[in-house]
Design brief:
The chain is α/β, with parallel strands linked by helices and 319 residues long. The chain folds into 3 domains: 14-88, Winged helix-like DNA-binding domain superfamily/Winged helix DNA-binding domain (Arc Repressor Mutant, subunit A), CATH 1.10.10; 101-174 and 279-305, Periplasmic binding protein-like II (D-Maltodextrin-Binding Protein, domain 2), CATH 3.40.190.10; 178-276, D-Maltodextrin-Binding Protein, domain 2, CATH 3.40.190. Helix content is 41%, strand content 20%. Strands 4-3-5-12-6-13 form a 6-stranded mixed β-sheet, with helices on both faces. The protein has a 3-stranded antiparallel β-sheet with strand order 10-7-11. The radius of gyration is 24 Å and the shape is elongated. The model is unreliable at 1-6 and 303-319 (pLDDT under 50).
């Protein structure tokens, strides 16, 4: 007589177990998973325990309150996440497809610079095409944006990334040069070319160290072994430009943030020979099932951005 495989279920189906597992894996915590699922912590723990017992594997390594996936857990997560996401999104997707895009909602996280300089034209065009979609922009720092993407508090983020975490998909859409900006009467303004070493004697005005631009600039100077001096840290490119005009220092600013009027009141040198271009693009949780509204927004920016359309990113370079 063939012995049947034992099955362990705790108050529900395999879907409940997998949903608890996926939330715990994504959030790294039973507490946060229980909050996301509106369940008690013991209920989530029992669901996870039942799943591990049934599959006869350890899915998590526990370090204090932090959960890390084992190799088997990562395999199961990669398999289960699309299924859970698809089922959880089924009702909304069905209603959206029945109604089209009418009455949908789209939540986008972005940094203040992206909201100020990159998104206005894109948002205006999206609103013109889809006036019935409720669009919400969440102003965040880089880390806050990733947290919202991971927690599914937003559909997507738009911004710049230096390094993409393993659980995040980043699709760069636009590339911008890095520019040296100075007062019109600055000594470097008279030079036809500017080397990285030329910047060392002068104080830089930069955004705070947590901002991607600061880390990019620091990385380049460190790699080239060129010393540099930060005279002032201040948040906001408009403030930085005003302080440069006042003669309080020089700065390195992405060309996205430079307007035509800025070019009349600032001396500008392109630093493309020394700094890589800065990319801006769409950030989503890897494996996330995009809503029709999110897909419409992405398709408007660049069709089939996650379908490897073969479009060359250099088509979006600003010179």
């Amino acid at each position: 007589m063939t012995q049947s495989t034992p099955r362990f279920y705790y108050k529900g189906s395999r879907l409940k177990q997998l949903r608890a597992f996926c939330h715990a894996a994504r959030l790294g915590s039973v507490t946060r998973a229980s909050e996301a699922l509106f369940l008690s912590q013991p209920a989530v723990s029992l669901q996870l325990g039942a799943l591990e017992s049934e599959l006869n594997v350890r899915l998590f390594e526990r370090h204090g309150r932090r959960l890390n996936l084992t190799a088997e857990g990562q395999l199961l997560y990669d398999m289960a996440r699309p299924l859970v996401d698809g089922l959880d999104a089924l009702d909304g997707d069905f209603r959206s497809r029945v109604k089209g895009l009418e009455g949908g909602e789209l939540n986008i996280a972005a940094g203040s610079s992206t909201i100020l300089y990159l998104l206005p034209a894109l948002v205006a065009e999206f609103r013109r095409k889809h006036p019935d979609i409720q669009l919400k922009l969440h102003s965040v720092s880089g880390n806050e944006g990733l947290q919202k993407v991971r927690a599914d508090e937003v559909d997507l983020a738009v911004g710049s990334m230096l390094d993409s975490p393993s659980d995040i998909d980043y699709a760069p859409l636009y590339n911008f040069d890095q520019l040296l900006v100075m007062p019109l009467d600055h000594p470097l303004a008279r030079k036809s070319t500017v080397n990285l070493e030329d910047l060392s004697p002068y104080g830089l005005i930069l955004p705070p160290g947590r901002v991607t631009t600061y880390r990019l600039i620091d990385r380049v100077f460190q790699q080239r072994k060129v010393p540099y001096n930060v005279a002032l840290e201040v948040d906001g490119w408009e403030v930085i430009k005003q302080y440069v005009i006042m003669g309080l220092g020089i700065s390195i600013i992405t060309s996205l943030c430079i307007s035509h009027s800025d070019r009349e009141r600032l001396a500008i040198h392109n630093l493309r020979e020394h700094f890589p271009q800065r990319s801006y693009g769409v950030v989503v949780r890897k494996g996330k099932r995009l809503s029709p509204a999110a897909r419409a927004f992405i398709d408007q920016i660049k069709p089939s951005v996650f379908a490897r359309s073969g479009q060359d990113d250099n088509d979006y370079v600003e010179r």
